[in-house]
Amino acid sequence: ESEVYARMLLLRKKGYPLWKPKSDERLPEEYKREGVRIGDVGILNEFGGFDYLFNACLPQDHPVNEGRVPQGFRQLHDINVDDTIGSLKEYGPGSHVASNPSRIYKAIIPYSENNPPIRYTIDIDRSVPKEVGAGLSFSSSTSKGALLILPEGGMRVDHQQFSKFYEYASECARSWYAYINGPLARGANSIYLVTGCDKARAWGVASFIDANPGHISLDLVPSEPDEAGKPLEYWFSSCTAASALSDSDDVYENQSGCVFLRGFKISVQ
What we know:
mainly beta, 7-stranded antiparallel sheet, 35% strand, 13% helix
């Protein structure tokens, strides 16, 4: 399902779509707090996630780099770290990105007596967005497709000094490969250097192929957290003729889930 998802959403030209936006739980605390960031070097894995290795824009003794950089690591200094473009509200609440926008349809599930609004009496910012209502329901008139759902919206950021990243990657590519396929023994055919990304706190992803369009149905709904004071969670209460996953950052409550990556896919001949 991750391959179908990536292949179909690449058509939207927003970057590389991650089936698993959340950072690996074994990564340093400092990394998980923010998630993917500009300068990350890693591998796109077979499970639809990004395997973070190190960050080229940060010093080797930074918490996200400590004990992770290749021998002879040279930090990318020759950039203006603030020379970025983007928006903290690139995606509004209740947004979705569909592989075929004209063939995948969204409807807001209305509240009912048996399905009343989830209300937070202490923190109004944690209430369900009005654009989500009791949930978001999706159907399709096509037999194959992919769908990203961002119930609370999301952000976008890109570095503008693209050529400096390109030059740096060209100079370092062979040493990175020697490190990743030598001491780390990853057997990687390509490496990814991140220059931009789209991120969110909560998300749902889905893909389907060779499905009967009349049978495709997906409902992503909010649910109250298990613990008081925790943020909202979202889950697929209904998923027919499709594969789907949902998750959120319920620990740091940040937009730490990376839904699209942009940058360089590096290969060595």
